[in-house]
Amino acid sequence: MAIREARREDWESIWPIFHEIVKVGETYAYDHATTIDQAEKIWLDDPCKTFVVEENEEILGTYYLKMNQAGPGSHVCNCGYMVASKARGRGLATIMCEHSQKVALALGYKAMQFNFVASSNEGAIRLWSKLGFEIVGRLPKAFNHPSKGLVDALVMYKWLYT
After folding, report:
1. Beta strands 76-83 and 111-118: pairing type?
2. pLDDT tens per residue, range 100-115
3. When you count CB atoms within 10 A of the terminal residue's CB, does the N or C end of the chain come out lower?
């Protein structure tokens, strides 16, 4: 398995992963009707960097890294991670999160923040906590889960310097 920076031609392989996750609507607050062009802008054009995880030349996961806030908050980055359903449970999210922290440090970021983690996404919360992220905020009933209804969204944060 290898991580590399995404190229424009990777979008054809990233889109099915993005579309599958957004369509289900359980983890990301993107509109279910996000078009392929809108998604490409969100995932490839707007972030500072986008990466893919490959195995045997097949893209199994992807993540972006971007500034969380400008100006006085520009030392904090934000990331989003997506793994193809067929590759889940293999540790790709861990690999991507650890990689993103190294990239963030190399780019001069001092902290990483996840702005909107659905409280129903227990696997992600467990993983982010295991990797040193703390829950620093709770937004009551901010995420409308398709089957659980209104659930809290969490803000998770990690200072990257020790």
Report:
1. parallel
2. 999 999 999 999 999 9
3. C
